[in-house]
Amino acid sequence: MTYRSRDNPSSTRGVNEHSMHYNAFNRDSAKLRRRITQLRIERGYTQEDMQQFELSLRQYQRIESGETKNVTFANLYKIAKAFKVRFSDLFDF
Predict the structure, then answer these.
(1) Which CATH architecture has domain 21-91?
(2) Closest CA to 72 of 80, 86, 46
(3) pTM of the complete model
């Protein structure tokens, strides 16, 4: 088990610029955002429409814009259900 300290930036929550996964994480995050946006547009939904699927408008906007890097499993689940796709289909990029 690794001790996580506030003084050690490479051990902070998430993937940051000190992580060996940083570039791949950012690339895949961008692909996921494009996939989510693509599915929303294909379904004819606006960002505002996503509120009907128990998603906060501002949070959804942050997901699509990339402001939110660590999207919760719960929000990804709601997004998949809104688009009537399997959870794994969100990652079909």
Answers:
(1) Orthogonal Bundle (1.10)
(2) 80
(3) 0.81
